[in-house]
Amino acid sequence: MRATFFGLEAARTGLAISQKGLDVTGHNIANVDTNGYTRQRIITTAVDPYGAIAQFKPVDFSAVGSGVTVKILDQIRSVFFDRQYRTEQSLASNWNTRTQGLTYVESLFEDQEDSALSNGMLYLFEGFMSLSTEANDKEQRTVIQQAGISLTDSFNQIYDRLVEHQENQNLSVEAVVGQINTLANNIAELNRSIYSYELNGQRANDLRDRRNLLLDELSCLVKIDYQEGEDNKLVLKVAGTELINHVTTTELQLRSDTDPITGLEVFRPTWDNTDPGSDLSAEALGGELKAHIQLRDNSGRDTSGIPFFIDQLNTLARGLVRMVNDIHSSGYSHPASGASTTGINFFNEPSDITDVTAGNIRLDQRILDDVYNIAASDRQVVLGPPTEDPLDPESSNQLQEGNQHNARKMYDLINQTDLILDPGGLNITIGGFNSFMTGIIMDVAITLQHSKTNSENQRIDLLAVDNQRTSISGVSLDEEMTNLIKYQHSYNGASRVITTMDEILDVLINRMGLVGRS
Questions:
Q1: Residue 369 near residue 360, CB atoms below 8 Å
Q2: pLDDT, tens digit, 9 for 90 and up, residues 84-133
Q3: Structure letter (DSSP) for residue 230
């Protein structure tokens, strides 16, 4: 015969499990809006039955289980969707950051019709056109001087803002690397806590939620590859090298270098800042860090960065200086404030044209000092009584006011489409000033549009994966309400078993054996 009180233990465990289920359900409901929370559930198993070992037993003596017990408090989470989400998030963060950076670059150039550079060049060359008919007019010469100053100021301003933007990207690289190292150390500390907590077989669910949030945040900054072994030790790699090995970290370092185009001091991520060969590529790093590096460093048309647009702007400035100076220096100044001389540059030009940048382009000091140094004539101008030359009917005008041919030649530059800049034999095709300027603006627009398209596509992909992940790990109030009802009925059922067995025991103890008693 089984033990008299045996059934009470089975019912008691039912009460305890139902109460535990209600506690877990309440915990899930309380954290329905908690960022990164993973819904939990209790995994139960039947308690092994009691009974002596025997080869043959009557059916009446068959072992009956002694109730239920909690096997583990589990999290409902998909490892596959976690990995996919972090991969997509790394890509999305890269394109979002790149789009933000390029949007600022586009704002500097604006649309072709509103571009300060385009308008500045238009005003300058229109001034040359007006000068070709009003060479003696000081006001018109002043208009050209001011148009030149305005144009060079526009070059300088855009260049300075691009360099400042490049420096901001460099500071962002430094900041992101610092964030990566901080997150790595925090994850390593959580690894230590999780490992210690789970030595007794329990699950550190809330600690794991905190670690998952940090892994999500880290995947925004850089592309990660991680694996948690059967021993519950997490190993995380960045660019093929272990950033985290359970409770130890290898921090990313920064190596100081110089940008070849702007001369800006830049920081390059590396594992060893004493070895230039250990620099990590943007592609290998991925995430937001990749976008900052590419925006700061890329000088090629493919994945264009700030140096590419600065280089294009420098080429335009050098072409403008060389082409205008070639014509201007061959002409003659007006003798209103001195002798009519030749060899005067309109723009300041050093001995090496490659030393000219959009950041330092300016008018020649002689043009700034005296507007009559603007060379409108291709022949020397001599003030005084007109002199006749029977072989040249226009000689009197040439000797008195100049022929204005040089001003016309400079104006004609704006319509030429075969301009070539050849510093050091590089043979750089400018084409036309307007078309080259339009090309720069179009490069910015196309690059930005490509980035926006990829950013939007990646946003949609990330949202789809996040919805799938949330559908598994997120808290559903409808499901939790169902669990509340389920555990309530289970609790009531276990209580009824105890009540019934109590009545049976009352009969067994207090009412049996009373026959014949008075």
A1: no
A2: 999 999 999 999 999 999 999 999 887 545 667 888 888 999 999 988 78
A3: T
User: Dihedral of the CA atoms 21, 23, 24, 26 (nearest 10)?
Assistant: 120
pLDDT for the residue numbered 80: 94
Q: Is residue 452 part of a domain?
A: no
Burial of 244 (0-12, 13-18, 19+ CB in 10 A): buried
Q: 39 near 205, Cβ under 8 Å?
A: no
Pair (330, 348) in one structural domain: yes
pLDDT reading at 231 higher than 90: no
Full-model pTM: 0.86
Q: How are beta strands 428-431 and 419-421 bridged, if at all? A: antiparallel
Instruction: Give the three-class secondary structure for 265.
Output: strand
Please give the average per-residue pLDDT across 478-490, as a whole number. 93
Q: How far apart are CA 12 and CA 179, in angstroms?
A: 51
The 3-state DSSP class for residue 305 equals coil
Q: What is the DSSP string of 8-29?
A: HHHHHHHHHHHHHHHHHHHHHH
Domain-located, residue 189: yes
Cα 347 from Cα 324, distance rounded (Å): 8
Report the distance separating Cα 133 and Cα 444, nearest Å.
38
pLDDT tens-digit series, residues 252-269 = 999 999 998 888 999 999
Q: Coil, strand, or helix at residue 378?
A: coil
Residue where a domain terminates, one of 255, 274, 298: 298
Q: Amino acid identity of 381?
A: V
3-class secondary structure, 270: strand
Give pLDDT, residue 41.
Answer: 93
Calculate the alpha carbon distances from 75 to 72, 117, 187, 207 in Å.
10, 60, 19, 12
pLDDT at 399: 45
Same domain, 332 and 423: yes
Q: Find, among 18, 394, 321, 392, the residue nearest to 151 by Cα.
A: 321
Domain range for 288 is 82-109+166-298
Query: Is 225 among the domain residues?
Result: yes
Residues 170 and 203 in one domain: yes
Burial of 499 (C-beta count, 10 Å sphere; 0-12/13-18/19+): exposed
